[in-house]
Amino acid sequence: MASPESDGETRFIALMRALAVDPAARALADDAAVIPFGHETLVITHDMMVEGVHWLRGQDEADIAWKLIATNMSDLAAKGAEPVGVLLGYALGPDDARFALGLGEALAAFGVPLLGGDTVSAPTGARSHGLTALGRATSDPVPARSGAKAGDVVWITGPVGGAMLGFEALRDGTAGADTTAFRRPMARLREGRALAPIVGAMMDVSDGLLIDAQRMALASGVTLAITTARVPFPESLPLARRRDAMTWGDDYELLFTLPGDQTPPCLAHAIGHVEEFRGDSILLDGAVPQGRLGYRHG
Q1: Domain boundary among 113, 137, 161
Q2: Are residues 134 and 43 in contact, defined by beta-carbon separation less than 8 angstroms?
């Protein structure tokens, strides 16, 4: 929930932070709540999607359902959690049967059961859906956005920018373009479980690489220094659009840190390093990045 920028979302979260005093909430500075429960640790997250923001009007309802599941699974992946189940909050729409079809496909793909939820009929206008995902932690401690230390290497599990290109192609009706990264993203659950026992810090990239790296840096009290030439991008991305790709979001790759002498147990790309904090939380190619760092609400 946390955002490092001064906007409406940040102001509201500050109000919520005063109420979320239970340690499980992690001060609302992380991807999910972490709750010790008997001999297990529960990981619980909730994400919402809004028409016109997270999906295009008229988009296939099956893809909307898939993305709703995938975004929540990505939060569990960032905690190295094993999915236990989901609860759906659904606003009835023009093609509920297609939504149900896509939901079933996503539940099967991510190996998670639907446990319940609620449906509503909303007035004409932008629809929104919510999903609560429950997971079981597979490591102790459960990874957090904090934990990055000076000397660590910054890694990412895959390219950024594919969702941006897919969105633009879908919006423009570009024939033959691959829009999968935007319509049906994959959550890195397997990678998250493999990484959880060894990472310093870990989170998923949902709002843009730069803004999410800044969030990790702020949570850890360090500076993350990223090198553009080391960041993986889709082959079809023009060189001039690399900065756009690092700020657009919807990539759902895992961003994490490891000590300099360790290599990850899964496919990943080293894109930078962690430095002591000296006044700026993020550097791009040795300089403080100017302008927009990523997506923000409000």
Answers
A1: 137
A2: yes
Residue 14 tokens, joined: 């500050």
Taking the CB of residue 3, how many other CB atoms lie within 10 A of it?
22
How do residues 97-117 score in pLDDT, each as one tens digit? Answer: 999 999 999 999 999 999 999
Whether residue 24 contacts residue 17, with contact meaning beta carbons closer than 8 Å, is answered with no
Sign of the torsion formed by the C-alpha atoms of 248, 251, 252 and 256:
negative
Integer CA distances (angstroms), 117 to 31, 111, 123, in order: 21, 18, 20
Name the one residue in this structure whose structure tokens are 């960032």: 78
HSE-up (13 A, CA, CB side) for residue 32: 33
Q: How far apart are CA 221 and CA 238, in angstroms?
A: 34
Sheet strands side by side (includes 128-137): 33-37, 40-50, 128-137, 81-91, 114-120
**What is the total count of domains within the chain?**
2
End residue of a domain, out of 137, 163, 192: 137
Residue type, 92: L
Q: What is the pLDDT of residues 222-269, one digit of tens each?
A: 999 999 999 999 999 999 999 999 999 999 999 999 999 999 999 999
DSSP three-state, residue 98 = helix
- Give the chain's length: 298
Question: The tokens 């690092």 sit on which residue?
Answer: 246
Cα atoms in the Cβ-side hemisphere of radius 13 Å centred on 152: 25
